[in-house]
Amino acid sequence: MSKTTKAFIVAIAVMGIVRFILDANGVPKDVVKYFSMSAIMVIGSLYFAIATATHKERLKASYLLVMPYMTVEVLALSYTWATGRQTIFHAAEYSMGTSIAVHTLGHLIGGFTWEPLLIFALIEVVWGIYTGGRSFLKPKTTAA
Fold first, then answer.
1. Contact in structure between 31 and 22 (CB atoms under 8 Å)
2. Would you place residue 88 in the very low, low, confident or very high pLDDT band (cuts 50, 70, 90)?
3. Of 72, 101, 102, whose CA–CA distance to 88 is shortest?
């Protein structure tokens, strides 16, 4: 695993922990929402779309980007489930009106299935645009 991959994993996890701590200490949700794991995941997705050479590497990167996010989400939702104390992780705009049990299990199941596959699909689209643009803009050379 590359240093860059590890850096993205750590950054996503740390951002999630910061988000949880801020929320647990009463910082308004209108402020906490800007501490976004998703934003780091988007940056990582763009990076891996350009920096990886194969589809397999991009698929692996998509899972590695989702794992720290899913871990923080499931732990924070489990905290809400166990304590009954509302957190930003189960706010109405994020839970889509589901119960805490459904929301937690949805992240656990989604984190191993459709969430990384969706990230992979987006990475592949960016890779395709980048590769196509690069070949289009690359000057054509002819043999002398």
1. yes
2. confident
3. 72
Question: What is the distance between the alpha carbons of residues 128 and 35, in angstroms, rounded to a whole number?
Answer: 30
Which amino acid appears at position 60 of this protein? K
Query: Is residue 69 within 8 Å of residue 9, measured between CB atoms?
Result: no
CA geometry: angle 125, 53, 119, nearest 5 deg:
35
Question: What are the pLDDT digits (tens) for 125-140?
Answer: 999 999 998 888 777 7
Give pTM, 2 decimals: 0.88
Q: How confident is the model at residue 93 (pLDDT cuts 50, 70, 90)?
A: confident
pLDDT tens, residue by residue, 47-72: 999 999 999 999 999 999 999 999 99
CA 35 → CA 44, 53, 100, 111, distances in Å?
16, 31, 22, 20
By CB atoms closer than 10 A (0-12, 13-18, 19+), residue 122 is middle
- Distance CA(33)–CA(88), nearest Å, equals 8
Q: 50 is written with which tokens?
A: 């350009």
Rg (CA), the chain: 18
